[in-house]
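look at this one:
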Amino acid sequence: MRRIRRGSHGRGAAVRLSLVALSLCVSQPALAQVSTDSTLVPAAAPATRVPAPARQADVWTDAWGQPKNFGLAALEAWMGNFLPWVFNELVPGRAELKISQVSPRSWWRNIQEGWKWDDNAFQVNLFAHPFQGNIYYNASRSNGYGYWTSLLFATAGSFHWECCGETHFMSINDWINTSIGGAAVGEMLYRASSRVLDNEATGADRVLREAAAFAMNPNRGFTRLITGNARRVYANPEDPNDRHPEEAGSVFSLGVRGSKSVRNARGGELRESLATHGFVDVELTSGSLATLDRGKPFDFFTMAAQVNFIRGRGLGELDILGNLWHTTLTENEKTVSKIVVTQNFEYSNNSSFEHGGQGAGVMYYRRTRLSDRSMIGWSASATWMILGGIKSELAFLADVEGIRERFREYDFGTGPGFRGGLNWHWDSRRVLEASYRAQYLKTLNGSSGEGFGSDHFVQILRTRAVLPFELAGFGLGVDYQHYRRRSDFDVDDLGLVKQHNDLWQAFVRWTPKRPGA
């Protein structure tokens, strides 16, 4: 069994709890059935409705009635580093690593040494660190600040950990993944928890909603408890974009999957098979690009997560895309087209390939209504991977001076890419989907060592078809994904490596009815 090393910082349990709690964001119809006649504990104290805090010149509040509170935000961000430090210091098995013996001397040494690259496992660097960044981000976001200020909190919180939270040298890949990835994960969780919360609820209904939101977004739950907003009965946000955006929805899928992979290099051919196993998909959509009118980041976002029932590869996929800016080109009864600047978070991890990272893109989006029941949408994006990771045969050559704990199996790189997508809706339900991604990565750290260079080119084609039923939003679906990698290594013993992977899925899909639909 591989030891959980530096970088995990005790995050595993919190990460799993956050993913499981995502499913609660669609539970509003069920929660709404709980009687609201009862009051919150203590039962003897009747709930009284009070007006939401006013947006006055001297007291500004966000849409949920939370005033800006820098002190509480800074305290929560600091706690996001203090608790992992306590874990590393006190938990048996972690203290022996001696990474928590920090002091002003270790702080100054780290700053003098500057940025390094580390060799943590793929799931630690590309998944656990962004979830840690979500803690810093939501320390700010839940205390009245917006996306951009909260991104700065994530950046500062991550820097504080890298320089002063452990004795390892500062890791540049950790700082980028924690800061930028933390904003993507953090805003997604903030928006998802907003779909559960109800300031006007009382009794058991209110308790369940606050508990579910706390599980999904602990910073927000803590802030609401400390400020008293978890108990107060007051007005919900006036703008539906802040709570129940138009065309928001959730989809759950349960099925089986398997794959085959072939790799060719100068040394010969390697064939691998991924054992057939079960999986669960959770997909969230918040808002619609077609009806997007405000300019706030992540008024529209999509999230797709896949949990696999296979040892060692539990979280197979996590993909987040949210808007940062947009402008409308065409808008009439039949057609809508827009230019959208997006933030992209990618994570794919299975025994055949590892691919993911933090990126941004400029998208052209167009949706056309074909009839009262039929609608088609498509998009094309020019993207840039700010920092990506990809499985590589020679990544173990990475220069990780002062941080080396294992041999890394993936390269870090940056470069341009392309995304395209097409979907067809029938009666507001997706029945056909197709997507294509192309990504070039110039290796920054990994196999570009010992006097030679490397680069990677990845293509991913995916198609999906779903046969919907009238019964309670259920449907049957099949999914096919083709992954292709071309890696050029400037070394005679390996040279050009070509890999292709075919992955199939069959599943049952459930689309819950939206509140008020």
In short: Confidence is low (pLDDT under 50) at residues 1-48, 53-57. The two ends are 49 Å apart (CA to CA). The first strand starts at residue 249 and ends at 265. Residues 142 and 220 are 5 Å apart (CA to CA).
